[in-house]
Structure formats: C-alpha cells, structure tokens
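Dear colleague,

Following up on yesterday's call, I've attached the two folding results inline so they're easy to grep. Please treat them as preliminary; we haven't cross-checked anything against experimental data yet. The first protein's sequence and structure tokens come first.
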Amino acid sequence: QVQLVESGGGSVQAGGSLKLSCTTSGNIFRSCRAGWFRQAPGKEREMVSTISVSRLPDINYADSVKGRFTISRDYAKNILTLQMNSLKVEDKAKYYCAACDGRYDGSFFYPGDSTYWGQGTQVSVSS
C-alpha cells in the first residue's frame, strides 16, 4: 500500500521560509504526477503546486504562490519537496502531499478517487 509522509511544517513569521518534504516507500514519484495541496480552516482544499514525471518536468503553481514557492522531486530518494519563501499569513494551512490519478488540464491538477494522500503537515504563519 502506498504511503505518503509529509514533514517540515511549523510556525514562522510572515516573510519567513519553510521546506516541506514528502517521502514514500515506493517509486510512485517516478510514475505519477505529484504535488502539494493545502486546506485552511473553513476553506476548501486548494492546489498549491504539482510536477510531472518527465526529466524536464511540467510544473504548475497556484497564482497565489507563484514566485514564492518551488516544487521539486528527487528521483533517487523518492522525495517530493516544496520550498516556501516569503510566507504570508494567508499561507497558513494544513499542507498535503498527493500523487497519481486525477486529471491535469495544463493549469490545474484535479485529484481523482484513487489519488494517494499524505496525512498532512501544519504550516502556521504569524504577522
């Protein structure tokens, strides 16, 4: 069974940085589009960024994080990372790693019923 495990969340002040990591025991990041989603209290889950499997990956970002967040994957270590810089109060949310299934339209990735999800890691940003 595929397991995704996130780490790296925490509390920072606005303008600070955090780096999230997602690890898996299998080779899922070599075979499926993967990425990060987040959900703030009282809000719907939203896509943050996703990355394709190709050597020259196709990457997309939500408009709200463009220029501040960077997604990457390490094929050898089976790790997906999200470097978050210039964090804003509105970035506060629980961040989830996700992989596979779903539909990608060139701008957004829509998870499917069989998309794998991690348990999430909390990111808090204070002003």
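Below is the second protein, in the same order (sequence, then structure):
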Amino acid sequence: QVQLQESGPGLVKPSQTLSLTCTVSGGSIITKYVYYYWAWIRQPPGKGLEWIGYITRSGVSVYTTSLASRTSISWDTSKNQFTLQLRSVTPEDTAVYYCAGVLPANYGLESPDTRDAWGQGTQVTVSS
C-alpha cells in the first residue's frame, strides 16, 4: 500500500523559498503507481483545498495558473521522492501543505477521494 510523508521546515520568512519533500513508500512512483499524478495541495486557515500542481510519471510538471510563476515541482526517482519549491513567499502562503498521489480525474477535487493516497499534511507558517 502506498504511503506518503511530507517533510520540511515549519517556518519560512517572507521573500524566502518554501521547500518541501514528499517521500513515497510502498512502491516506485514511476514503475508501480503509474496511474497517479504526484501532486501538492495546500489548505490555508479557514479555507478550502488549493491545488498547487503535479508531476506526471513522465516527469512533466503542471502548475495552477495563479502560482505558476513561483512554483517548481520536481522529483528524485532514486529516492522515490518529489519536491515542492514555492518562491518569494508571503504570509498568504501560510497553510497546511499536503502531498498526494491522485488519479488524473480527481485532480482539483474539493476533498480527497478514497482512491487516492494523501500524506498527513505539514503546517508551514510564513512569518518574520
């Protein structure tokens, strides 16, 4: 069974880069779970899910338009990890950040689908 775990700093200063890593266990992200998009999602305080972007098994990254200029998603297949970098952060980027393996049809849903695999989430606060 696939499991995901987010890791990274919980506090980032304004204008710096937020970097998070998602470690996937239970099988290879490119040879076993070939049907998933590997995605990053966040939930700001008091708000709904905001989908940030994803990387496909072919290594193609796709980002939501509003964050595209500041976002990079990449992977290290040797470590079975994928990463998020969000540049020039502001306090508005404060949120719980999740990584997930999602079926393409489920990308962008308002809530997690049981056929997908989500990490437990990690709180990131942007503050000086």
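For the second protein, one point worth flagging: The first strand starts at residue 3 and ends at 7.

Best wishes,
A.L.
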